[in-house]
Specification:
By secondary structure, this protein is an alpha+beta fold. Helix content is about 25%, strand content about 30%.
């Protein structure tokens, strides 16, 4: 991104990533000065405002955070067990937990309202379009998922 990209291009690029579900990496050498600086920095700030308005639909992170997330997602193994209280999911990850400690997102195909806990602490569960999503700590122990209104583990 920089002087060669106008506001319409940046919005179209962002919207295209959302529609395709692909990852995107934006890089600039300068905002107000430097090689390929924006010229008018408010164009960049307005784009960041637009991206921020989509925070429920996309995730923005540093290259280090995204790399760690992808490694965790590829490494984690989930053991799933039905219990009288609900479904117990035990994550196992072989990566160094001092380095790889980013939350991962668990997706459950259901339209039912759910609640979930990990290590006895409630997780934020969002239900939309027949899917329930929740972020969990891959190093944080068992995740218990129950119908909303069931007892906690």
């Amino acid at each position: 991104m920089g002087s060669k990209r106008d506001s319409a291009w940046m919005r179209q690029w962002t919207d295209g990533l959302l529609k395709s579900g692909n990852w995107g990496i934006a890089m600039t050498h300068g905002i107000t000065t430097g090689y390929d600086a924006f010229g008018d920095p408010t164009r960049f700030w307005r784009h960041l405002d637009y991206v921020s308005s989509l925070r429920d639909s996309l995730w923005v992170g540093t290259l280090a955070d995204v790399t760690a997330y992808l490694r965790e997602r590829g490494n984690v193994r989930l053991d799933i067990t039905a219990t009288p209280k609900g479904v117990c999911i035990t994550p196992h990850m072989t990566l160094d937990s001092a380095i790889y400690r980013h939350p991962l997102t668990l997706v459950v195909n259901t339209a039912l309202p759910l609640k979930a806990t990990q290590g006895g602490r409630p997780l934020n569960v969002k239900t939309n379009n027949g899917k329930a999503t929740m972020d969990f700590d891959p190093n944080g122990g068992e995740v218990l998922i129950m119908k909303n209104g069931e007892a906690r583990k």
